[in-house]
Amino acid sequence: MKSADRTLVENQLQAAQSAPTAQPTASLSVPGSFETKPTSVLLDECRVGWTAFSSLPNPGDEANALSMSPEALSALYQGTRSQETLPDDVIEKFLSEAYYGEWYHHTGFMLFTVFFTWLVTKLGGGLMACLVIGAFLATYHQTNMRRLRRNTRDDINREMSINRLETDEESVDWMNHFLSRFWLIYEPVLSAQIIGTADAILVESTPSFLDSIRLSTFTLGTKAPRIDGIKTYPRTEPNVVCMDWKLSFIPNDIMDLSKRDLQSKVNPKIVLTIRVGKGMLGAGMPILLEDLAFSGTLRLKFKLFNEFPHVKTVEASFLDKPVFDYVLKPVGGDTFGFDINNIPGLQSFVQEQVHATLGPMMYAPNNYLVDVAGMMAGGVDLDAANGVLGLTLYSANNLKGSDLFGSLDPYVTFHIGNTMNTELGRTAAFEDTSDPKWDETHFLLINTLSDNLCLQVMDRNVGRKDTLVGVAMFDLKELLEQQAEGLTLTVTRNGKSVGDIKCDLRYFPISQPEKQEDGTVVPVAESNSGVLRFLVHECKELGNEKKGFGLPLVGSSDTNAYAIAKVNGVEKLRTMVFKRSVNPRWYKWVEMFVADKTKLNLSVDVMDSNEFTDDVCLGRFSSRLVDIEEQITKQGQDWWTLKDGIGKIHLGAVWKPVVMTGFSEGLGHGTYRPPIGVVRIEVLEAKDLKNVEALTGGKSDPYVRVLSGTQVRGQTEYIDDNLDPVWDTCLYVPVHSLREDLILEVMDYNDIQKDKFLGLTELVLKDIVKEVKVEEQSVYEAMDTVDRWTELLSNDRKKSKGSLHYVASFFPTLELAQQAKTPKDTETVEGTPAPETPAPETPAPETPATDMPLPLPEKDVHGELIQYTQDKSKINLLAYESGILKVTIHSASIKDKAKVTADIMLDSNDPQYKTAQIKGSHLPFNETADAFVKEMDFSRLMVRIKTVSDSKDDSNLGFWISPVSDLVRQIQNRSAEDDTEKEYPLSNSNGGTIRLSFDFIPVVKFKLDPKESLENQGNLTVTAIKANNLKGVDRSGTSDPYVVFTFNGEKVHKTDTYKKQLSPVFKNEVFTVPVLQRIGTSLVAEVYDWDQIGKDELLGQCTISFTADQVESFAAREVELPLNTEGSIRVRLLWQPQLLARKRTGTSIFSATTRMFTSVPGAGGKVLGAGIGAGGKVLGAGIGAGGKVLGGGVSVIGGGVSAIGGGIGSGVSAIGGGIGGGVSAIGGGIGSGIRGIGKLGGSKKPSPSEIPPVPSVRTQSLPTEPAMATPTPEITRSNTSMHGSTMEPTLSSESNTPYLGRPSEDSIIGSNGTITISVVGARNLKAMDRGGTSDPYARVRIGTKVIGKTKHIKKTLVPEWNETFSTKVGSAKTVLDFKVKDHNTINDVDIGEVAFDLWDNVRPGQPFDGWLTLKPEGTGEIHIRVEQSNEGNSNNRGLFGKIL
After folding, report:
1. CA 125 to CA 167: how far, in whole Å?
2. Residue 719 and residue 711 in contact, taking contact as beta carbons nearer than 8 Å
């Protein structure tokens, strides 16, 4: 080392030791931000910056500045160049600028001078006075012209400057002067950063035959880069600045340097030392690069915007090929080096290669784009993950290997973009199978959703390279709209299908802060799940402490350090070996997905690599992630002292939270856990929802759905055009783990398009469920009910618009103590491997056994009494009214190939589970799901096969329906040897079948609210029989009575008028009222006396309540009701609990089938005159005459398994002819009419434990004649089988449509027959005459055929026609057109009309009776009654779909 350099180094060391110690500051690598590279600790042998080659001090070194005066420091850098200054140009001002300079000022002063001269001469003034005035005029004129010239000059200069900007270049000497001063200070720092970064890269790129490659010398010299000129283009967009910069970096150009500058000048110099050999036998070979030169014209285009940093993007491009030159001496260094550019043709070849590389990037017209705003926001790191892709891979089917011989051992690797890109993960390999079942979930870190996900199926081979089976592709852009659930991806090889893969995909973006409109910033959502970037920067002072050269030196020059980063003891990162340095630099990082950061430990082992011995540990670091995060953010710490060694390590950690509530333990495809209980969610209302239909002039049609993992487990009805909807709907969702959090999503219903997202909220199970340890067994108990208003969130968990009100509670399943379980209890679902190490906080509860060993426990772990059979050998599952039904769909067969899913619906029109999509005619689903059973006596299960399409109709390729009680009875009676998997026929499938198996787990501590019971909703059929001893109000002592029935304030039926009678006998006065809520409602009967002139007089009224005294489920009962004045009325009441049809309006179609009972009564509106409900048999007038026979096999209330019907097996009673006096013969023992509401005739309901198993009864034929009624026969429930298997009734008159679900318009068909149309009356009609009245009549038409026309009634807006017409119709779509017109002598005038779809509203035995609104709006309503005759109709069905 030269003496001058040695002196300089000693001075710098002394200055560093005397300088105050810097306190640690907060690191920039805080969670959610991107790291910045730290200041490097360089090797002692490195020569960095121009100060290593010059005796001049660094002008930015404050320590040197304090050791000498400012004058002395300036003298060191003072050159010979000087700068001249121009003298100031001072203009005398005699007047304010407000009084001169304009043309009117000059004209006015001239006129004033002439006038004043005339005045002076007039007053006797002489020549001297005129000269004085002229002097003043000349002075003012001079000042005025001076300002005029200045303004003109400024205008000319302004225009000239604009033209000069467009055509000329301007110098930027001020910038060059600044660079010349700043360069001397910044160049050493820049050189040090370049060496630190380059060394880390060279360590990774060192070939194996070399010992090391090190950048030992780097300096760019003392002469700064120069801007030779700038040309500006002002005529651009207002937010764009465009300039051409002429740049040059020519250190060897000394023409503009002073003599003093030449003496201190340092040229650029770069030395790359390549070490060959090992250890002491190695030697370094320097490669020298010097005399660098560069010049070119660079066009810069800045795009501005109104947010910080206000520069959005910068585009850079070279207008011409830049010129560069260099001297490269690969051998010999400074002394004996030979410039290889002297080799002919080499220099031009290198230049061409450089231009060929840079040309496509930034030679005009190509631009190099720098996203400044993205860099400031930390979002342009292409290597950093900005989201997590949750991939659940279930299975593959029918894989076809490429090997002709040998077995197929498939596994799958995951790639983004194409299969040549980096592998993100892989599954396990299954041996010798073409139908592997992985059931694995992988979390893939991705940077963009604009690429494809590649699932590469490989065949594992031993002793040779694995072979390709095929590749399945998925476009990740689809995840921008919605999560991809139940996917079936086709695996292709050479364009041909070689199998299918079943999987789920969900994308979770990294949470970002959100800026509100008022400027406030909402911080990122907190989450223990997220992406961790762990950085290993460098170490310093490694090894054992030594002494040398009078200074403390650490370690030895032969230290070859590398680092191993571990996460929870698993190696995640291993750096390359940094040779021959105690201050190694790696700058390596690794990103990983973290499910729970509170349980994450990080450790780093720094090792010394040895060639012939074991590696030695130089130090260790270990800490929890949460501790590192706190130390970085709060304490500003980024260096840690190593343990078990000497030295420090520089680390960084960046935490990016990802909200993944409900995913980790949610229900998916292919995996199943036994349930721990059921969550009851009462969705009440929402406020101030987002309006996503504002552009179309409407409002959102909101509904709420509950998600568990990827499955929609239940949803409410949608409400038309309402931003403050009230649902009051109860949803029940089985849960299987304490971590299976539920998501409540508010959606906007669209009839054609996909439903739109309005917001979500999360229900964390730990808020309503607690885990209790009972003798080392996990028991899940309910906590207090949660009743909350919660703000809705967006998909990335930021605050959205609106709020939701719901109530949530938990009910556990029956759970036995561990010593009471049998081996059968611990079996897993067939085809589903049991987890090897289940999470300690979520042990899977087992299904209660039906074959119990002795001794039998009296209570379960929840303290609930266990119901056993009479012989105490089994748990009596039939004794439990509620529970969870587990359904395993093994496979299905259909006639034609199709891409389908299998849907499970239990007491619901909407699927509560959808299988993965699968294509073919033989469909191996092999999936297990469950659903909650509220009332076993009434619940029905449907499994349907539905094609995959974007349409929202309920068309299907086949379905199967069964009462849940029959399935539970099969489970109860089967033995251990019985095969649980059975094949069932599919209806509407042309010979299709489905293979299913079932299990049932009772739910304890649950009591169904009577308002939620199915018996609280249904149809009330009222038959008016007669009235007795009415009040006589006419002169003759008699009356002309008629009866008006009113339900909830709405008139639902009016009888005919019976002239001059006090005890009229009514004829064919039958109507049906759909009752949404039986509890608390009543039907009022009002008896009027008809008067031809004047108002009809009220004779009396009575109330028909829905109590057990007057109404009995499935039983026709005649009651005598006293009027409140005198007399009485006798009616026959038939209450049929069933599911009511609901009419969809607005953005939906009318559904003729029913919605299962989830609505909490009391909130819903009145349902009057609507469809009666699919599957309900409305008894007509023939009940009194004894003409109808109710279908057999109907589930009724009570302990006994009962049926209503005629001649359909043993123990079946009938309602039929001979009822005569109104005594309805219905078998005894039916049980209570409504639980907690009333009892049937005082009969006591048998306890469930007393119910004996009843064998299935197969009915071969149905009687054609009505059975005679018997007094009180024993009633049993029969299993009527339509296909020779378990009972499968169809609950509507539609032969191809199940009773659950909303059928498509095409599937709603009628049947041939005769319809009767009664036009009862109208109200609120529009006045068409001058007197404010009309003369209305009604016309009925089908197509172009007029069916009938009523008489016209004069001068009324509330006409009552009571006229009936009949016509024959077919099964095709039939629309009745009702038009009300005003009668005039010359020309009738239309008042209003309405179209009525016959088969959407009427079925055999299900008449329509209600009010229809006329169009246009405001023209009134018309009351009609339409029913179809049952004669000749072979498709008549009775209660709950039983064939009549």
Report:
1. 62
2. no
- Cα–Cα distance, 429 to 470 (Å, whole number): 15
| Token pair in block for residue 861 | 């772990």
User: What is the token pair recorded at 291?
Assistant: 């005399």
- Distance in angstroms (rounded) separating the CA atoms of residues 777 and 843: 9
Amino acid making up residue 909: N
From 235-244, 1071-1080, 1414-1423, the region with the lowest mean pLDDT: 1071-1080
Mean pLDDT of the chain: 75
What residues are paired with 248 via a beta bridge?
A: 226, 295
Higher-pLDDT residue of 855 and 986 is: 986
Q: Order of strands across the sheet with 410-416? A: 425-426, 410-416, 452-459, 467-475, 484-493, 496-509, 387-397, 437-446
Q: How far apart are CA 123 and CA 139, in angstroms?
A: 25
- Separation CA 162–CA 185 (nearest Å): 37
Mapping DSSP to helix (H, G, I), strand (E, B) and coil, where does residue 1004 land?
coil
Identify the DSSP state of 1435: T
User: Which tens digit of pLDDT belongs to each residue from 925-974?
Assistant: 888 899 999 988 888 899 999 998 877 777 888 999 999 999 999 998 88
**End-to-end alpha-carbon separation of the chain, Å?**
113
Interatomic CA distance for residues 946 and 1301, integer angstroms:
12
Q: Give the DSSP letter of residue 1325.
A: P
In 3D space, the residue among 498, 380, 506, 485 whose CA is nearest the CA of residue 443 turns out to be 506
Token pair 């006639």 is at which residue?
Answer: 895
Task: Give, as one character, the DSSP assignment of residue 689.
Answer: -
Complete edge-to-edge strand list for the sheet that includes strand 1375-1382:
1345-1349, 1336-1342, 1375-1382, 1389-1397
Q: What is the DSSP string of 604-655?
A: EEEEE--SSS--EEEEEEEEEHHHHHHHHHTT---EEEPBSSS-EEEEEEEE
The helix (run of H) or strand (run of E) holding residue 119 is helix 103-122
- Listed in sequence order, the residues at least 6 apart from 427 whose beta carbon sits closer than 8 Å to its beta carbon are 393, 411, 412, 438, 440, 442
Neighbouring C-beta atoms of residue 227, cutoff 10 Å: 17
H/E segment holding residue 503 = strand 496-509
Taking alpha carbons only, the member of 619, 626, 618, 580 closest to residue 602 is 626
Are the beta carbons of 1251 and 1198 closer than 8 angstroms? Answer: no
Give the pLDDT confidence of 631-676 residue by residue, as tens digits. Answer: 888 888 889 999 988 899 999 998 888 887 656 555 555 567 889 9
CA angle 93, 95, 99 (to 5 degrees): 130
Helix (H) or strand (E) holding 496: strand 496-509
Residues 6+ apart with CB under 8 A from 368: 315, 316, 317, 361, 362
| 352 CB neighbour count, 10 Å cutoff | 11
Pairing of strands 212-219, 47-48: parallel
Sign of CA dihedral 417, 420, 426, 427: positive
CA angle 72, 77, 80 (to 5 degrees): 115
pTM for this entry: 0.52
In DSSP terms, 900 is beta-bridged to 918, 947
What is the secondary structure of 898-965 as a DSSP string? EEEEEEEEES-SS-SEEPPPEEEEEE---EEEEEEES-TTT-EEEEEEEE--S------SEEEEEEHH
Least confident of 38-47, 339-348, 585-594, 750-759: 38-47
The Cα–Cα gap between 1205 and 1277 comes to 11
Phi/psi zone of residue 277: left (φ > 0), alpha (ψ -120 to 50 degrees), beta?
left
The DSSP H or E segment spanning 1042 is strand 1041-1047
1312 contact partners, CB below 8 Å, separation of at least 6: 1368, 1369, 1370, 1371, 1432, 1433
Determine the residue type at 337: G
- 1133/1119 Cα distance (integer angstroms): 8
